[in-house]
Design a protein that fits this description.
Largest sheet: 6 strands, mixed
Number of strands: 19
Distance between the termini: 34 Å
Shape: globular
Mean pLDDT: 83
Low-confidence stretches: 176-183
Helix content: under 10%
Length: 343
């Protein structure tokens, strides 16, 4: 992320397979049954262009269907320009990614996050238009685009079938979390499948930090609707200090879930009371039809067992495991397993 003293070493992608519980009857749903569980495996690249940088910032995957290859897209902050790399991964060889093509467009000039709408179409957020100062100040000059690709045989300038601006004049759209001018809201839009335009804002949820990435997940405790996991940064200047390797610098982590509650007809001022620092201690209320709960908090001090700079939170619906990545964390990835059951 950002300029590198030496851009030559390539970054990498990793595969993590959780241990399986034979009693849950879902073995067939797991990728790579022959790959050792509870261990990170580096993915090797096949047919990747010689001399081409690879500095991944965000990825998105359209999963395998009936044994067909998965489609994986990775934002690549290469030294010359930001591009998107297209790979396929065969379920039979899940630790090998075959490079398909490099996608370059004005619609990904400052790409930060991806959200797929099909195996060959995606939304891409661009966190600034001209300079990074826009991101720091939260100026509403950035944008979200939707890109549809031609079949994989089309490469170079011919790779893109169509591209449209789904949302213009957005302040600092980091990943798929679209921030408000205060950089503390998650905006939920209704999507028009025919045009891919984000046509109507359904609601907004104010969160107690600067959101980074969001993901939909099955409900944690048997709810009726999909929950939204939001990871972010309670104190953004701390990240700058950590990135600059300042002595003693730490940056906290906070991951929450936005929980739909269709029967909830009024806001609440007290919620998330089990967390060490509750969300309700930072915000005046939750919302009508939804509430929030903390999934993870840490001061970020790794010397004291903390985990810093939360960027992404994911839940495995099969095992109940919770995964979190840390942007500058020495450990890279944190795995939390339920003590019993799947909650």
């Amino acid at each position: 992320m950002g300029p590198l003293k030496d851009p030559n070493p390539r970054g990498g992608l990793w595969l993590y397979v959780p241990s399986r519980n034979a009693s849950d009857g879902n073995d067939s749903k797991y990728l790579a049954s022959k790959v050792a569980a509870d261990k990170a495996h580096r993915i090797t690249f096949k047919n990747y262009p010689e001399g081409h940088d690879f500095h991944p910032l965000g990825i998105a995957i359209w999963p395998s269907l009936a044994g067909q290859p998965s489609n994986l897209y990775a934002i690549n902050h290469a030294r010359e320009r930001t591009v998107i790399e297209h790979f396929t991964i065969n379920p039979a060889t899940p630790t090998e990614a075959e490079h398909v093509r490099t996608i370059s467009s004005f619609h990904s000039l400052s790409a930060n996050g991806l959200a797929l709408t099909s195996p060959d179409a995606f939304y891409v957020t661009n966190d600034h238009f001209i300079t990074l100062i826009e991101s720091v100040l939260g100026l509403p000059l950035a944008f979200v685009s939707h890109v549809t690709l031609n079949p994989p045989t089309h490469k170079g300038p011919d790779a893109i079938a169509s591209a449209t601006f789904a949302k213009l004049f957005v302040p600092f759209p980091n990943g798929v979390a679209v921030s408000s001018p205060e950089r503390s809201q998650v905006l939920i839009y209704e999507r028009d499948p025919a045009t891919n335009a984000l046509i109507r804002q359904k609601y907004s949820a104010t969160v107690p930090f600067s959101p980074d990435n969001i993901h939909f997940t099955e409900p944690f405790n048997g709810g009726s609707g999909e929950e939204i996991i939001v990871a972010g940064h309670p104190n953004f200047p701390d990240i700058t200090a950590v990135a600059a390797n300042k002595t003693g610098a730490v940056a906290a982590s906070w991951v929450i879930a936005i929980v739909p509650q269709a029967e909830k007809n009024e806001t609440s001022v007290e919620f998330d009371l089990e967390a060490p620092v509750s969300i309700s201690s930072k915000l005046t209320s939750d919302g009508v039809g939804w509430t929030m709960k903390t999934l993870f908090q840490s001061s970020g001090d790794e010397e004291k067992g903390g985990f810093p700079v939360s960027t992404t939170g994911l839940k495995d619906p099969q095992t109940g495991n919770f995964y979190m990545s840390g942007l500058y964390a020495d450990g890279g990835l944190l795995v939390c397993k339920p003590s019993s059951g799947k909650n």
